[in-house]
């Protein structure tokens, strides 16, 4: 496999992994809102950390990506950072304010999944036009 092909494979794997992780984050946030007070605080505390880790993971692969993909991944990172912020706010709030923050976190997590999916599709499209 050539160096360029290896780089593309690594980026594709990183994006696919990030998309799966972002989808898991979205599901965890959705479950947390549904369960309300039944959720253990330690579980909730892990969510902002996970969002930041996903953002760091895909952010570090930006150099190896095409310009169009970079913009989409950059938007995903922004949404993941917002997800982490809203989840952290929810932990510091209670009642309606906490629920509102979690709902924003869910929307941001969903948007990050969408942007990562768009990046994966762009990578696939670019790869198919080269062959």
Describe the 3D structure.
With 131 residues, the protein is mainly alpha-helical. It has a single domain (3-130), classed as Four Helix Bundle (Hemerythrin (Met), subunit A), CATH 1.20.120. The protein is 87% helix and 0% strand. α2 packs antiparallel against α3 (67-92) and α3 runs antiparallel to α4 (95-130). It is elongated and about 55 Å long. The model has no long low-confidence stretch (mean pLDDT 80).
Short description:
Helix content is 87%, strand content 0%.
What descriptors fit this protein?
elongated; 87% helix; 131 residues; mainly alpha; Four Helix Bundle (Hemerythrin (Met), subunit A)
| SSE string, helices as H and strands as E | HHHH
Helix content: over 70%
**Radius of gyration, in angstroms, nearest whole number:** 16 Å
Q: What's the CATH class, please? A: Mainly Alpha
Give the helix/strand class.
mainly alpha
**Helical run tally:** 4
Mean pLDDT: 80
Low-confidence stretches: none
Q: Number of folding domains? A: 1
CATH level 3 topology = Four Helix Bundle (Hemerythrin (Met), subunit A)
Q: Please report which band the strand proportion falls in: under 5%, 5-15%, 15-25%, 25-35%, 35-45% or over 45%.
A: under 5%
Total beta strand runs: 0
What is the terminal-to-terminal distance? Answer: 14 Å
* Outline type: elongated
Instruction: Characterize the main sheet.
Output: none
CATH architecture: Up-down Bundle
């Amino acid at each position: 496999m050539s160096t360029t092909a290896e780089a593309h494979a690594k980026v594709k794997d990183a994006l696919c992994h990030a998309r799966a992780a972002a989808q898991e984050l979205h599901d965890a946030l959705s479950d947390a809102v549904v369960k309300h007070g039944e959720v253990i605080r330690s579980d909730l505390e892990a969510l902002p950390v996970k969002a930041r880790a996903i953002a760091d993971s895909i952010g570090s692969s930006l150099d190896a990506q095409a310009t169009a993909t970079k913009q989409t991944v950059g938007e995903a990172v922004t949404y993941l950072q917002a997800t982490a912020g809203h989840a952290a706010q929810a932990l510091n709030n209670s009642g309606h304010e906490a629920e509102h923050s979690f709902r924003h976190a869910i929307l941001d997590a969903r948007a990050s999944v969408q942007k990562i999916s768009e990046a994966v599709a762009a990578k696939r499209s670019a790869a198919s036009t080269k062959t």
